[in-house]
Amino acid sequence: MSFKKIIRLLTLVLPHPVFSLLSFHATVQAYTIAQKKFPETASTNGVGNAFRHALWCCFIAMYCSKVSSPQKALKFCKRITDMHEELFPNKPLETKMDLHNNKFGMNYFKELLPGVHRQFFEKSFFIEGLEKKMKDAKVLKNLDDDFEGFLVYLDEK
């Protein structure tokens, strides 16, 4: 990672040490769960990757909203996940997929928020719900594709 990228990362994480630690914990949790549920595709561009990115954002928002407002948690989640894509660039279609699934995860968190007090969120709420939503996931083939409201993945064939 270049010096410039390290500075950009530090300007985001240093002012928010608790959010940063919680986001790191969310990252490890989401990755571990996705690897167990989708061992073949969690680290590729398949359905497991879509699940992992959405779950990652749900977890960041969930953990951070336990110590702050959901609005601040979601704002930090967007900034940290967008920065991840910027610091570790992919091919354009892969980036579109990751950003789309990140947004999907944040929207799913917002969707569940009115029905559950933020202090009572559990990981299982998101895992089970996203597993169900994986059944309707769409294959992203072009940068112009728009699958708002659906998880997306790349066809690995």
Write up what this structure looks like.
With 157 residues, the chain is mostly helical. It has one domain. Helix content is 65%, strand content 3%. It is built from 6 helices and 2 strands, in the order ααααααββ. It has helices at residues 3-13, 17-37, 47-65, 70-87, 92-112, 123-134; strands spanning 138-139, 152-153. The chain has a two-stranded parallel sheet. Helix 3 (47-65) packs antiparallel against helix 6 and helix 4 (70-87) packs antiparallel against helix 5. The longest helix is centred in the N-terminal third of the chain and has 21 residues, at 17-37. The chain is globular, with a radius of gyration of 15 Å. The mean pLDDT is 93. This is DUF6973 domain-containing protein. Residues 11-138 form the DUF6973 domain. Keywords: Signal.
Give a nutshell description of this structure.
The protein has helices at 3-13, 17-37, 47-65, 70-87, 92-112, 123-134; strands at 138-139, 152-153. The protein is mainly α.
Total domain units: 1
In whole angstroms, the N-to-C terminal distance is 31 Å
Instruction: Return the string of H and E elements.
Output: HHHHHHEE
Taking the sheet with the most strands, its summary is: 2 strands, parallel
Q: What's the total number of strands?
A: 2
Cα gyration radius (Å): 15 Å
Strand line-up of the largest beta sheet: 1-2
How does the SSE layout of this entry go?
Blueprint: H1 3-13, H2 17-37, H3 47-65, H4 70-87, H5 92-112, H6 123-134, E1 138-139, E2 152-153
Parallel strand pairs: 1-2
